[in-house]
Description:
Elements: H1 8-39, H2 41-47, H3 56-91, H4 98-129, H5 142-171
Helix pairs in contact: 1-2, 1-3, 3-4, 4-5
Amino acid sequence: MMPSRPNLLSTTRLVLRALLSLNFILGMGIGALLLASFFAPQWLQATLGARPEAPPALMTGMRLIMLIGLAGVPLANLVLARLLAMVTTVRDGAPFIPANAARLQAIAWALLAIQILNLAVGAVCASVSMIYPLDIGWSPSVDGWLSVLLLFILARVFDAGTKMRIDLEGTV
Length: 172
């Protein structure tokens, strides 16, 4: 008997679990870099391509960016965990439940916070670049902001649809 191929939902669950693990590892890496910035700042600057004569403002900016990155780790975890929970309800055949509408709303808020953190990284880069060039390839994300708006709308639509389904079940 030939083994069955994994379907899209099982693959999605696997990917989300892997991303949750990678997010944790990323957070540990950022934390390690932040610690290294206090114990071996010259090594870190050299590793990241900064010249030894860089002003202290550069290291301050780098630390701020690392702190912002650390703040993004639990937000990404929230998004991934909520998505995994939603995929589980789809797999179980009951996706239109109030909890999924709440999960979409939570994901929207988390993505909004991530977009604000992204703007904070841009602000740090801009302020440090006045003193020393700091180019991390930052750019604002129009797609990210549109995704936030879309998720807030979808959460409301999902909530209304869930209520309609509950009302319909009550009339049958």
